[in-house]
């Protein structure tokens, strides 16, 4: 009896080892790159990467990109030849090792920048993973379009008195590229060549449009809403770059009294 149990256990172990041997560790590197800018890494909170079996939906790997935004000169200023990489050892990435037995069709979902929910874009691509055939080096690069916009003034649900503000409300928005890269006057990302406006609603109805211009501080766009009317105001700030098609939006609601 003991011998039979021993044989069964031995057979089970052999089968387990055999099944395990079928699964081959396969490395996958995924990066999120801001459109017309650099890579989305630790400095802006990273990008969430989820790799799923495209057939079953099973999550095979997930995690955040970590690392730097990359080499500005290499990414933004130099011409690139075929097969020439635009990343270095510090450039942000997510790296996973997935055990697969057969060629597996996967969906790679990227949510970035993950810590800025009002600006987060979800993009995805699909690829076949072949057992033992790593997708390393530069890896799979998924582009993330847009801008990160945060309205700094007026503050959310602020109660503002027209008497104290002399019938004008200052609008200030912080705007950066999706990688956190700086927007400035005449810079690599030139704010003077971008369109920025605040669309104003009063009591649910379209009211005014205010043009925003670059402020003294980098990454800021500013404008003034002039009004003599009290009410519930919704301010939607957008930035648009016609050269790239990049867009971004943020909203705030304020109450204006006498």
Structure, explained:
The structure is a single chain. With 258 residues, the chain is mainly β. The chain folds into 2 domains: 2-144, Immunoglobulin-like; 147-257, Sandwich (Immunoglobulin-like). 12% of the residues lie in helices and 48% in strands. The chain has 3 helices and 16 strands. The protein has helices at residues 2-22, 72-77, 162-165, and strands at residues 24-34, 48-53, 59-64, 94-100, 104-112, 121-129, 135-144, 147-153, 159-161, 168-177, 195-202, 205-211, 213-214, 220-226, 231-241, 246-257. Strands 9-16-15-11-12 form a 5-stranded mixed beta sheet. Strand 5 and strand 6 (121-129) form a beta hairpin. The longest helix has 21 residues, at 2-22. The radius of gyration is 26 Å and the shape is elongated. The relative contact order is 0.17. Keywords: Signal.
Short description, anyone?
The protein is mostly beta strands and 258 residues long. The chain contains three helices and 16 strands.
